[in-house]
Design goal:
Order of helices and strands: EEHEHEH
Radius of gyration: 62 Å
Strand order of the largest sheet: 3-1-2-4
Distance between the termini: 169 Å
Largest sheet: 4 strands, antiparallel
Strand content: 5-15%
């Protein structure tokens, strides 16, 4: 595929005939045809159309105008000038539109693929973030559970310690009570013994005095 120009040329010495071809340099082509052929007058440029595929477009135009071809071995056609120009313009522009449409479709396809790739990447990233978030939440839940467990252990230990303190207090109170009772009994025994001794001494003194 080569870019160039599809042209329509006329020559005063050949009225009603038009040369339709393609070239990369229209001025050089006109000069070449005017000097290299047996025509009496130079060729005149009637119409030119830029083409992305000038050789392919030339073949399409020749095919469309085959019934107007003047000489099967040359590029001359006998038809109205406007028809020749319209055929060239529509053929080349149509080919250009087809290429532009193809490029548009290709661009849309590439854009769709990029969107799909971006969506896949975004989905993967979102999944990774979600997994990370879930792992963090699970870690937080585990920390909370561990904290609650420790608090329960502390409460149990506190309740146990309180019970032990209460038992120790009751035991101390019981011991004090026993000690007090024992002290009271001892005091009673001492008083009794003292009274008995006094009675004995008094009796002895009385007996000695008699």
């Amino acid at each position: 595929m080569k870019a160039g120009i599809v042209y329509v040329l006329s020559n005063p010495s050949q009225p009603g005939l038009f040369k339709i071809g393609e070239t990369g340099d229209i001025e050089a082509r006109v000069k070449e045809l005017s000097s290299g052929t047996s025509v009496a007058a130079p060729f005149k440029v009637e119409f030119t159309q830029l083409s992305y595929d000038c050789a392919g477009d030339e073949q399409k135009v020749h095919y469309l105008l085959k019934e107007y071809r003047y000489n099967t071995s040359r590029e001359f056609f006998r038809l109205p000038l406007e028809q020749a120009i319209t055929t060239v313009r529509q053929t080349v522009v149509g080919q250009r539109l087809e290429e532009e449409e193809a490029r548009k479709i290709a661009a849309q396809k590439i854009a769709a693929e990029e969107v799909a790739q971006n969506a896949a990447a975004a989905t993967a990233e979102a999944k990774a973030k979600l997994a990370k978030l879930e792992a963090r939440r699970e870690r937080e839940r585990q920390i909370v559970l561990d904290h609650k467990k420790k608090q329960e252990e502390i409460k149990k230990r506190a309740r146990f310690d309180a019970a032990e303190i209460q038992r120790a207090q009751r035991l101390n109170e019981a011991l004090r009570k026993i000690e007090k009772e024992q002290e009271t009994k001892d005091q009673k025994r001492v008083r009794t013994a003292t009274t008995l001794i006094i009675v004995i001494i008094t009796a002895v003194i009385y007996a000695a005095s008699v």
